[in-house]
Amino acid sequence: MDAASTSQQVLLSLRQIIHAMDLRSRQLDKSIGLTVPQLIVLKEIAADSEAPIGRIARKISLTQATVTTIIDRLEQRGLVSRERSRVDRRQVLVSLTDAGARLLDRSPTILQEEFLSAFAELETWEQTQILATLQRVATMMKAERFAAAPLLTIEPLPQPEATQVATQPVAKPDT
To answer: Which of 9, 17, 60, 173 is least crowded, fewest Cβ atoms below 10 Å from its Cβ?
Structure first.
């Protein structure tokens, strides 16, 4: 295979990945009316009942501000509820409502979960090779300057701050 053909195959693979993410995101929205980040937050709340927003944000590698916005939307839909901690009144704890639990029961597997499961099955050398290759592709596309959380979604990314590291969320204290 010549260099031009190889580069075309690389671009084709990138387009296929983007298309798969877009399609799964649309299917998720259509089937349960949630975005990928909303479903991930909902799943984290189910796994860690009565969790403070800051802890949820750290566990899923999103900023506290982003998670707060997502929780606002989930609360408006009646899928989660917030309550002040009885132990530390400064903390707001988030819980899944019955409606949220029902929605989770019928939610499909997200692309990220399928990817992580398949990735875990690979040999360590294969995982390392994929990581190195994708990091190189990101650098070639000058994408390393963008802040990103490890979520497989095509939603717009926040504009990077000069001091923010590309894959590190901005940690904020629990409020």
So the answer is: 173
